[in-house]
Amino acid sequence: MASDTTPSRSKSDLRRAVLEARACMSPFVLAQVNAELAEWMYRLPVDVADGEVVAAYAASGSEPGSTAILDVLVDRGFTVLLPLVPAGDPTRLQWGEYRGELELEARRWGLLEPTGPTLGPDAIHRARLVLVPALGADRTGARLGRGAGYYDRTLAAVDAPVVAVVNDAEFVDDGIEQGEYDVPVSWVLTPGSGFTAVGG
Known about the structure:
By secondary structure, the chain is an alpha/beta fold. It has helices at 11-23, 27-39, 67-75, 150-155; strands at 53-55, 79-84, 94-97, 104-106, 112-114, 127-133, 136-138, 143-144, 162-165, 171-172, 187-190, 194-197. Strands 3-2-1-6-9-11-12 form a 7-stranded mixed β-sheet, with helices on one face. Strand 1, helix 3 (67-75) and strand 2 (79-84) form a beta-alpha-beta unit. The longest helix has 13 residues, at 11-23. The radius of gyration is 16 Å and the shape is globular. It holds the Pfam family 5-FTHF_cyc-lig.
């Protein structure tokens, strides 16, 4: 995402620009990005005790993040929850526990989800920290999602800090417009700079 991002650019234009840039990333660069993001899991911005819950996501395609992030969190003794996309119209996400890459399968829209028991949408309230995918984020706490609203519906009543995970160039000073129902994030994680507190 260009650093001159302004509110005059529509969300759909921003999404298209980010997705095009990600599609051009070489496998080597993506692997490096994911390795750097995984290293930041040893320096979380909040204290998480052994056995406590971190909610995350299984990245797809050129999305930043990988199962390496999830494996580090599990190795640190945390319970890791991943989202399950329910059938039908957009609503709150359901959750399942991550138990290793071999227990993930592609489901709706090709997204990787745990194959174990399905936990209800309220499982997210157990999380001490929530890592969410994003196409962009800015220092006001605005997050650019894919537009369906699953995460905004899910995070509306969540008290835990929320972290948007993006590439370095997708984190800008401002200019990502927030709608009435958009939920801001507390932190932004980039491979180069780690966790940055955002918003008020």
